[in-house]
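EI: anyone free to look at a 103-residue chain?
SC: sure, send it
EI:
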Amino acid sequence: MLEKKAELDERDLGKQPMNAEELDRLIGDRNYLEFLNPKNELYRARKMKDKPPTRAQAIALMAKEPNLIRRPIVRRGNQWAFGFDAEKLVGLAKAGRLGEVIE
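SC: here you go
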């Protein structure tokens, strides 16, 4: 994103993890399952693809294990991109200043 000269606000979840309340606000009315990282060991161990957790369980797990959150999460206004989707990220960057990037 920086290579495309996009201006952004960034949060490193390794250094500043999100608590359950912040995650709940971030997810809002969106499908919480989109925020889960299917490449994470816990996701695979708990077979979340076949047996997805409830919203409350997912939020609690993501708050405890930040690597369970799919990243980056990029938001511009009400447009979102989850994970590394180069086409979508470039599209958001071309639109101007990005609101928030969570890595």
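EI: Residues 2-102 form a domain with the Glutaredoxin fold (CATH 3.40.30.10).
SC: 👍
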